[in-house]
Amino acid sequence: MPRPLALAAALLALGLGLAPAPTSAQAQTPPDPNNWLLNAPDDTTRFRLLQGQASGFHVSMQIVGQRYQALYDAVADGNFDLAAYQWEKIRETIVAGYQRRPRRQANADKEFVQKVYEPVLAAFRARDAARARAAFGEARAACMACHEAERVAFMNDQPLFRRTAAWP
Ligand code: HEC
């Protein structure tokens, strides 16, 4: 190639931002597959991946189920501070769940957040065993009412709800 042409080609390559060929060391290092977000081509793809990992309402419900069992144990033990704690976390988990699945919000607010949350919390804070047990019964009924409203009434027919229907 005559010299002026070679120079023009080099300037054109620079202007186009063409990267120099990778050195052999760079070419041999594949991207770390554990960087599943960093390796994504753009932020929209990354947000899609994050949404997928955050999952749906069922993940929140699994956590709620565990906390509900712990709540039952706390009330049975007369540990009202723990009961109030679990109750608060149950509400937070349900609300976080419907942030991800807004179609669940109307019934969750109607059957749970607005109907039973505050009175049940007040009952646990009152540190009275009979009142706390009655309040737990209201909580249980609210869970089951929302399952009916959301057309997953089959959720109510499992040991979690049978075990927590009465006290030891
Ligand atoms: C929006 C109203 C609503 C409220 C309030 C609610 N649930 Fe649910 N629950 C659902 C729905 C809907 C599902 C099915 C989840 C799905 O299909 O993604 C479910 C599923 C579940 C599951 C099964 C989760 C799994 O995937 O294994 C458990 C356990 C559960 N709920 C417990 C509870 C308990 C305990 C409470 C009360 C503290 C409660 N739920 C309150 C709507 C509700």
Tell me what the structure shows:
This protein is mostly helical. 71% of the residues lie in helices and 0% in strands. It contains eight helices and no strands. It is elongated, with a radius of gyration of 28 Å. The protein starts with a helix and ends in a 5-residue tail after the last helix. Bound molecules: heme C (HEC).
Bound ions, cofactors and other small molecules, one mention each: heme C
Using only C-alpha atoms, the radius of gyration works out to 28 Å
Low-pLDDT stretches? none
Order of helices and strands: HHHHHHHH
Number of DSSP-assigned strands: 0
Strand content: under 5%
Number of helices: 8
What class would the helix/strand composition place it in?
mainly alpha
The coarse overall form would be elongated
Largest sheet: none
Between the first and last Cα atoms, what is the distance in angstroms?
93 Å
Overall pLDDT confidence: 90
- What level of helicity do the residues show? over 70%
